[in-house]
Amino acid sequence: xxxxxxxxxxxxxxxxxxxxxxxxxxxxxxxxxxxxxxxxxxxxxxxxxxxxxxxxxxxxxxxxxxxxxxxxxxxxxxxxxxxxxxxxxxxxxxxxxxxxxxxxxxxxxxxxxxxxxxxxxxxxxxxxxxxxxxxxxxxxxxxxxxxxxxxxxxxxxxxxxxxxxxxxxxxxxxxxxxxxxxxxxxxxxxxxxxxxxxxxxxxxxxxxxxxxxxxxxxxxxxxxxxxxxxxxxxxxxxxxxxxxxxxxxxxxxxxxxxxxxxxxxxxxxxxxxxxxxxxxxxxxxxxxxxxxxxxxxxxxxxxxxxxxxxxxxxxxxxxxxxxxx
Length: 325
Hints:
Helices cover 28% and strands 28% of the residues. It has ten helices and 15 strands. It folds into two domains: 2-132, 3-Layer(aba) Sandwich (Rossmann fold); 139-280, 2-Layer Sandwich (Dihydrodipicolinate Reductase, domain 2), CATH 3.30.360. The two termini are 40 Å apart. A hairpin with a 7-residue loop joins strand 13 and strand 14. The protein is globular and about 70 Å long. The protein has helices at 11-15, 29-35, 52-58, 89-94, 115-120, 123-126, 139-149, 166-181, 285-297, 307-321; strands at 2-7, 39-45, 63-65, 79-82, 104-107, 129-131, 156-163, 186-195, 206-214, 217-225, 235-240, 243-248, 253-261, 269-271, 276-279. The longest helix is centred in the middle third of the chain and has 16 residues, at 166-181. It is an alpha/beta fold.
């Protein structure tokens, strides 16, 4: 068995999914660790004891601690998962820079709070970081990446992303998706067009035009911000020569629309009424992430959500916001 220590017993740590009887989903770290046959939660750390007994239902022998520093000298931790507020990430990670037994640091995004923290983090830690951008672990999103790379749908014409709840918060997931699907495309130009209802004072929801370069082709990319008080919409729309592809977060699907002749006006091309549908198994992606981490440890698989991947996302945000993050 592989030992996991989890620091932070909040929403993503436990509360998003603490139903021990429902084996169909794993939306929290603890549920994913519980459902994985090769993992055991050795340590759980939180300053609050509120959820201690709930954790004990999953792992009766777990050692519960109130101070993460008590883990520093432990030699029996293989994976250290950190699900605390972003502002605490650097100090926690840096305190484990000499803990050679830890093979992977599994981090919630964003990785750090300030630009200086990205520059100061220890190199040994950098190489062990996996950042929790869960969509990267879905097999159908991975397949879409390969199809795009092989030019299966013809040239890409345009990307349109609908999102809400801030560019840094929900928008960052779609930035990561652009970087994953298109292998960190070069950003040629950006322009903030307008702003909708702000999510927080330091995370606004913008309409943005971005010009990217992919395979020597210049692609227009639009982020269209929506009012989060009206609805929670996250969609990623790709317009190719021969196909229109839509990732719809609320449905957990990727819809593939063929380009066909209009029934009434055959000279005109339109998208087919019925798409081919591929499902993104959102409810099990945390489990899949841990599975990938085990394969990274065994050196059977490359880290597809690394420190460098997070840096690419931060650079993307910096380009849009002119460094003001």
